[in-house]
């Protein structure tokens, strides 16, 4: 069973019920009674822990939970994004068209547009949360956010949830200093089906801002905050407030929590970065 899967949580729930029933049945036995209570409480705490882990993704898999390391826990420096140097040459906060490798396979209506916070080039030690605008909500001028990276992805009926939860985050994490989880989505009411599918992936999107919709129109998964708005700028601002503030270098990257799960590399070596993004005006290696 998957560590974050529903079957394991259900099994833990049945275990609590079974342990409680056996404890009640053997209540008259002084030796069995306290043991049954302890087992029931332990199973209950384990079940609660599984639910929390599913939402927060502290341990995405059994390998992460069981992995041991003798290396001291150290915080990692924030690695620069592939576009960081190029962004220093541009006016602060100006949107740009983003052409990451393979973006045409995401089945978008056009290449994504990205807006970084005005102070992004001035804080190379920070990682920023992300707001992704999908559907025809991104047809107008892109709206920026003070402390959040905004990506406008004009999705189509052919766009899949995997493009929003796997492909786009992977490329964006290579090109910009962004966090790995608890992003937010902005969608028109007509795009809520795709938004719901994307938000169903644990840990990726924790909030959805729906434009020109009503709370009853949304079928967002449990744990996802849903807000409504009549304008793109207002929706982006609300969604940005639902994400964590920028993380400085003193905080381990969220994709590396807990720190002792970090893959071992020889001292002094740097992680390998592959690929690149074709952005108009970006220097080529």
Outline of the structure:
With 285 residues, the chain is an alpha/beta fold. It has 2 domains: 6-66; 84-261, no CATH class. Helix content is 31%, strand content 12%.
Question: Which characteristics define this entry?
Answer:
285 residues, alpha/beta, 31% helix
Task: Give an overview in words.
The chain has 285 residues and is of the alpha/beta class. It folds into two domains: 6-66; 84-261, no CATH class. The protein is built from seven helices and seven strands; from the N terminus they run ααααββββαβαββα. A seven-stranded mixed sheet has the order 1-2-4-3-5-6-7, sandwiched between helices. Strand 5, helix 6 (192-199) and strand 6 form a beta-alpha-beta unit. The radius of gyration is 22 Å and the shape is elongated. The chain crosses the membrane at residues 6-24, 31-52. Keywords: Membrane, Transmembrane, Transmembrane helix. Residues 259-285 are annotated as: Disordered.
Strands of the widest sheet, in order across it, are: 1-2-4-3-5-6-7
Report, as a whole number of angstroms, the end-to-end distance.
45 Å
Q: Spans with pLDDT under 50 lasting ≥5 residues?
A: 68-76, 250-281
Which structural class should the secondary elements be placed in? alpha/beta
**Biggest sheet record:** 7 strands, mixed
**Helical segment tally?**
7
Number of E-type strands? 7
What fraction of the residues are assigned to beta strands by DSSP? 5-15%
Average pLDDT metric: 78
Q: What gyration radius follows from the Cα positions, in whole Å?
A: 22 Å
- Cα shape: elongated
Helix content: 25-40%
Give the count of structural domains.
Answer: 2
Question: What is the string of SSEs from the N terminus onward?
Answer: HHHHEEEEHEHEEH
Keywords: Membrane, Transmembrane, Transmembrane helix
Region (Disordered): 259-285
Transmembrane segments: 6-24, 31-52
């Amino acid at each position: 069973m998957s560590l974050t899967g529903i079957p394991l949580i259900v099994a833990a729930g049945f275990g609590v019920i079974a342990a409680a029933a056996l404890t009640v049945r053997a209540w008259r036995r002084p030796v069995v009674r306290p043991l049954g209570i302890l087992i029931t409480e332990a199973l209950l705490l384990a079940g609660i822990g599984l639910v929390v882990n599913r939402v927060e993704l502290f341990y995405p898999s059994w390998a992460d939970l069981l992995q041991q390391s003798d290396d001291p826990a150290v915080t990692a420096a924030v690695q620069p994004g592939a576009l960081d140097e190029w962004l220093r040459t541009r006016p602060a906060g100006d949107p740009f068209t983003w052409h990451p490798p393979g973006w045409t396979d995401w089945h978008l209506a056009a290449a994504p547009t990205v807006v970084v916070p005005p102070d992004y080039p001035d804080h190379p030690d920070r990682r920023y949360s992300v707001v992704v605008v999908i559907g025809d909500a991104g047809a107008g001028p892109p709206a920026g956010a003070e402390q959040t990276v905004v990506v406008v992805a004009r999705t189509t009926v052919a766009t899949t949830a995997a493009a929003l939860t796997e492909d786009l985050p992977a490329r964006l994490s290579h090109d910009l200093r962004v966090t790995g989880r608890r992003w937010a989505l902005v969608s028109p009411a007509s795009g809520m089906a795709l938004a719901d599918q994307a938000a169903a992936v644990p840990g990726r999107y924790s909030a959805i801002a729906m434009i020109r919709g009503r709370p009853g129109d949304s079928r967002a998964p449990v744990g996802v905050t849903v807000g409504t708005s009549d304008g793109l700028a207002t929706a982006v601002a609300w969604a940005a407030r639902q994400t964590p503030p920028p993380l400085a270098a003193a905080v381990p990257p969220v994709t590396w929590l807990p720190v002792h799960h970090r893959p071992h590399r020889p001292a002094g070596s740097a992680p390998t970065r592959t690929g690149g993004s074709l952005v108009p005006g970006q220097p080529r290696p």
